[in-house]
Design a protein that fits this description.
- It is a single chain.
- The chain is globular, with a radius of gyration of 22 Å.
- Strands 7, 8, 9, 10, 11, 12, 13, 14 and 15 form a 9-stranded mixed β-sheet that branches.
- The protein is built from 14 helices and 15 strands.
- By secondary structure, it is of the alpha+beta class.
Length: 428
C-alpha cells in the first residue's frame, strides 16, 4: 500500500492508534504506539529510537561490553521504518492497527544486528541458487490462571473436552490470528497440564517468522484480557512437559511449482546432512535461555542426541519425505523461548551449507550419536567456535549474541536458588 491507500485504510476503519513493532534480540515484540495522524506523518521515513533493543537482555539490562550500543557511545539512533504492506487491524482492540517496521540507520541502511536481517541474509543465499524455503512453526505454551498455575491439572493431550472448557479464550486467540491474516491449522491441548500447541499454516520463511512473533504476542495479550497468563518459557515446572518450537521446512523452486525434496533425493539428503552437522553449532538459536536446557531429558519429546529417522517424534530431525508436495523435514530440538527469526535462520543456514558442500547424512538413528549440550554455556561454546555461524550470520552478530549469552550465564551463576537453601542451609 502507498501513503494514499494507507490514509484511506485508516479513515475507513476508524483507526485512531497504530502500533509500530519489531522483534528485539530475544524475539520480544517492541516498538511504539502512535496516534494514527502521527503515524501518517512518519509512515514514509520512520520514527527514531535508541539502538538498545538489539543490545539488551530479556529484562532490558544493558552492558558496556556490547559494542553495538552502550553507555560510552550513548545508545545512538536507529529508525523504525513502517513496512506499509504489513498494516492490519488488531481485532481485539477497537480502533487500533499494527505494522511491522524495518530497522535502519539514519542513512537508510539496514541494521545488521536486527535478527530479522540475519534471516533475510540467509534467504538471499537461497534466492541466489534459485531456491525458496517454505517453513511451518509448531509452538507450545502453557495457559495459566491468575495465580500463574496451570488452568487444568493432569495430562489430557488432544482432549476436545479440555479444549472446549478453554474455548472462551482459545476461540478469541484463534479468530484474532485468522483476522490478522495468519491462517491456522489448529490449536490443540498438548502433553502438560494447561499446555497448548498452536500450528499456523506454512509460508515463506520470513513471513512465517513475522507471523510467529505476532502469534506469541497475540496469545499473551488475549490471555491477559481474560485474566490469564500465557507463557512460552520452555520448562516452567521440572516434573511437567517442556514447551518446544518445531520448525517444518521444505525447499521449492522460486515459482513454488516443484518441491525439491520430493523431486531431488540428493539435495534432500544434502540438506538433511547439514541439519545434523550444525545441530549443536546452532542449537543456541533454538534454545537461547538457561531454562531451555532443562527440557532435554531422556524418554521425553525433547531430543538429547543429534539423531534423525523417518516419521519419529523422539529424534532431533524428523524426516517426512515421500509425501509429494508435503515432503519436508521437521527440526524438533527448538524451545518455545526461541527468537523465531533466529531459530528459522539456524535450520536454513544448516540446510544450505549441506547443499553447498554436498554433505551426506548418516543412514539412520544411532544410539551412539553426538549428545546435545545440556547447558546454555555449552551451547555457546559450540556456536562461538563455528566458522559456519560467522559465515551465515555475520561475525558482528555472532559476537553480539555470544556476549549477551555469556552475560546470561554469569547472572545465573551468581544467583542463590531456593533449591540451594532447601538442600544445604540447615544440614551442611
Amino acid at each position: 500500500m502507498g501513503l494514499i491507500e494507507i490514509e484511506k485504510f485508516i479513515n475507513e476503519n476508524n483507526i485512531h492508534t497504530v502500533e509500530l513493532g519489531f522483534a528485539d534480540i530475544n524475539g520480544v515484540l517492541r516498538g511504539k504506539t502512535l496516534p494514527a495522524r502521527h503515524f501518517l506523518k512518519i509512515a514514509e521515513h520512520g520514527s527514531g529510537l535508541a539502538k538498545a533493543p538489539f543490545a539488551w537482555d530479556i529484562q532490558c539490562d544493558v552492558y558496556d561490553d556490547v559494542e553495538f550500543a552502550n553507555f560510552d557511545n550513548g545508545f545512538p539512533e536507529m529508525v523504525a521504518k513502517p513496512i506499509l504492506s504489513s498494516l492490519k487491524i488488531l481485532p481485539w482492540r477497537e480502533g487500533t492497527a499494527f505494522a511491522f517496521a524495518d530497522i535502519v540507520d539514519e542513512e537508510g541502511h539496514a541494521i545488521q544486528e536486527n535478527p530479522r536481517e540475519v534471516l533475510k541474509n540467509v534467504l538471499k543465499r537461497y534466492r541466489d541458487l534459485g531456491l525458496r524455503p517454505i517453513v511451518g512453526s509448531e509452538l507450545e505454551f502453557y495457559l495459566l490462571d491468575s495465580d500463574k498455575k496451570p488452568v487444568f491439572d493432569g495430562i489430557q493431550c488432544y482432549s476436545l473436552y479440555r479444549g472446549s472448557e478453554l474455548e472462551y479464550v482459545i476461540a478469541e486467540m484463534r479468530n484474532s490470528l485468522e483476522a490478522l491474516g495468519i491462517e491456522l491449522e489448529a490449536f490443540h491441548i498438548e502433553y502438560g497440564p494447561g499446555q497448548i500447541e498452536v500450528i499456523p499454516e506454512c509460508d515463506d520463511a520470513l513471513e512465517m517468522a513475522d507471523k510467529t512473533v505476532l502469534i506469541k504476542n497475540t496469545i499473551k495479550e488475549i490471555a491477559r484480557k481474560h485474566g490469564l497468563y500465557a507463557t512460552f518459557m520452555a520448562k516452567p515446572w521440572a516434573a511437567e512437559s517442556g514447551s518446544g518450537f518445531h520448525v517444518h521446512q521444505s525447499l521449492w523452486d522460486l515459482e513454488l511449482k516443484n518441491n525439491i525434496f520430493d523431486s531431488d533425493p540428493n539435495i534432500a539428503g544434502n540438506y538433511l546432512a547439514g541439519l545434523l552437522k550444525h545441530a549443536r553449532d546452532f542449537m543456541v538459536y533454538g534454545s537461547p535461555t538457561i531454562n531451555d536446557y532443562k527440557r532435554f531429558q531422556p524418554n521425553s519429546f525433547a531430543p538429547t542426541r543429534v539423531t534423525w529417522e523417518h516419521d519419529n517424534r523422539t529424534v532431533a530431525t524428523r524426516s517426512l519425505l515421500g509425501l509429494g508436495k508435503n515432503s519436508r523435514f521437521e527440526q524438533r530440538n527448538g524451545s518455545a523461548a526461541a527468537n523465531p527469526y533466529l531459530i528459522i535462520a539456524a535450520s536454513l543456514a544448516s540446510g544450505i551449507d549441506g547443499i553447498e558442500n554436498k554433505l551426506i547424512p548418516p543412514k539412520n538413528l544411532d544410539e551412539n550419536s553426538l549428545e546435545f549440550p545440556r547447558t546454555l554455556d555449552g551451547a555457546l561454546n559450540y556456536f562461538e567456535t563455528s566458522d559456519a555461524a560467522k559465515k551465515y550470520f555475520g561475525e558482528k552478530f555472532v559476537k553480539l549474541f555470544i556476549t549477551l549469552g555469556r552475560h546470561e550465564v554469569e547472572i545465573y551463576q551468581s544467583v542463590v536458588t531456593d533449591w540451594e537453601w532447601q538442600r544445604y542451609l540447615e544440614i551442611i
